[in-house]
Write a structure and sequence with these properties.
Blueprint (H helix, E strand, L loop, with lengths): L1 E5 L2 E7 L5 H7 L5 E4 L5 H10 L4 E4 L5 H8 L8 E2 L1 H7 L2 E4 L3 H13 L6 E4 L3 H4 L1 H4 L8 E7 L3 H9 L4 E9 L5 H11 L2 E6 L2 H13 L4 H16 L4 H23 L1 H6 L3 H30 L2 H10 L4 H13 L2 H11 L6 E3 L3 E3 L10
Parallel strand pairs: 3-4, 3-6, 4-5, 6-7, 7-8, 9-10
Antiparallel strand pairs: 1-2, 2-10, 8-9, 11-12
Helix pairs in contact: 1-9, 2-8, 10-14, 11-12, 12-17
């Protein structure tokens, strides 16, 4: 384990240099890793483990879309793909990768198969941290830990295929066998992590729920919508408003920030942009800090988890969700985005191998 200094704060991290794949394979050589759930995280984690030589099986409901997807991905019914209960019985490490709501519903079944010495693996601290709400209480004679990739399962798989790694946090909630540390780190390497940083279940879920509602999705959509609307109200076209609000950020600036940091970005932009960014960033920080504080306190109080459980368990949840997503999808800003994306060079259709025929996905309203 390495100790890295992050601006004066020392953290424990584990890299692939000090815990190579060969060591992970040795730790897991006698394990059967049962991935339960093949939706968001399941495919990426299962396929990466499979490609890394780990004995991984998938548990999914037969005759479902996700069962069919697992078959298309190369898992073989009766060999590496089973009904959920059979996979639970076969697995020595249970990767519990269903949605939070589905984990609650299936828990009585999963608990029956957690015999002494097995391990229960999560990629989210939700079920354990909010166990008064979820009723997920593992027996004391199994290991309980998590590896939480900091991105979607799609990104995890895509980066793995590119020879890169997606950073993950890891945490041990219960070490019944004395092997929990080796097991969790080996799995973190096997699923394709870049480096692993230490946390605990509560901190993982608090930061995750705050991030999802904040800068990762909720806040960024709110900021996009506000700036886009101001530009439109002031007479700018949808194309101009979208490009200045979203396209330039996601296609040009954020990749450079990811590579070099925001300080590098500030130092390498025009002096006009530099001056404006330096003058305005603290105003945005001060304006949004109270909202983030309110958000974090709502997460810590269990309000966000309870709302998620309550809404996801409603019989008409899918219909309500689709209506909310439709509002986003059909907004002028994201319709403009659909058209702008279709005009990127990589999305243009080559006609006859020489000239490119533009195939816009739609039209820019009032452009």
């Amino acid at each position: 384990m390495a100790k890295l200094n992050f601006g004066g704060v020392v953290e424990n991290v584990i890299t692939r240099e000090e815990f190579p794949l060969s060591k992970a394979q040795e730790v897991l050589k006698n394990e059967t890793v049962a991935v339960i759930g093949y939706g968001v995280q399941g495919p990426g984690q299962a396929l990466n483990q499979k490609d890394n030589g780990i004995n991984v099986i998938v548990g999914q409901r037969k005759n479902s879309k996700t069962w069919d997807k697992a078959v298309r991905d190369g898992f073989v019914p009766g060999e590496t793909l089973f009904e959920i209960e059979e996979a639970l019985q076969r697995g020595t490490i249970i990767c519990y990768l269903l949605s939070d709501a589905a984990q609650i519903a299936l828990w009585p079944t999963v608990e029956k198969y957690l015999t002494p010495g097995k391990a229960l693996y999560f990629s989210h601290g939700f079920g354990i941290t909010f166990n008064e709400q979820t009723k997920i209480l593992p027996p004391k004679d199994v290991d309980v830990f998590l590896v939480a990739p900091k991105g979607s399962g799609t990104s995890l798989r895509r980066m793995f295929l590119q020879g890169r790694g997606l950073n993950s946090s890891y945490a041990i909630y219960q070490d019944a066998t004395g092997k929990a540390f080796d097991r969790v780190v080996a799995l973190g390497i096997a699923v394709g992590s870049g480096y692993l940083f230490e946390t605990n279940f509560k901190k993982e879920v608090y930061s995750d729920l705050t991030g999802e509602r904040g800068t990762l999705m909720g806040a960024i959509q709110g900021i996009f919508a506000a700036q886009y609307q101001v530009l439109r109200d002031k007479g700018h076209t949808p194309s101009e408003a979208f490009n200045e609000t979203v396209e330039e950020l996601t296609q040009s600036l954020m990749p450079l920030v990811a590579e070099n940091g925001m300080d590098w970005m500030y130092a390498n932009c025009s002096t006009t942009a530099q001056r404006g960014a330096l003058d305005w960033w603290k105003k945005f920080r001060d304006a949004t800090a109270p909202v983030f504080k309110e958000l974090y306190e709502s997460v810590a109080a269990g309000k966000e988890s309870q709302r998620s459980i309550d809404s996801n368990s409603q019989p008409d949840y899918r219909e309500k969700l689709e209506a909310e997503l439709k509002e986003l999808r059909e907004s002028e800003m994201w319709q403009a985005g659909k058209t702008v994306r279709s005009l990127r060079p990589e999305n243009q259709v080559v006609d006859g191998g020489s000239e490119k025929e533009l195939k816009p996905a739609g039209t820019l309203a009032n452009a």
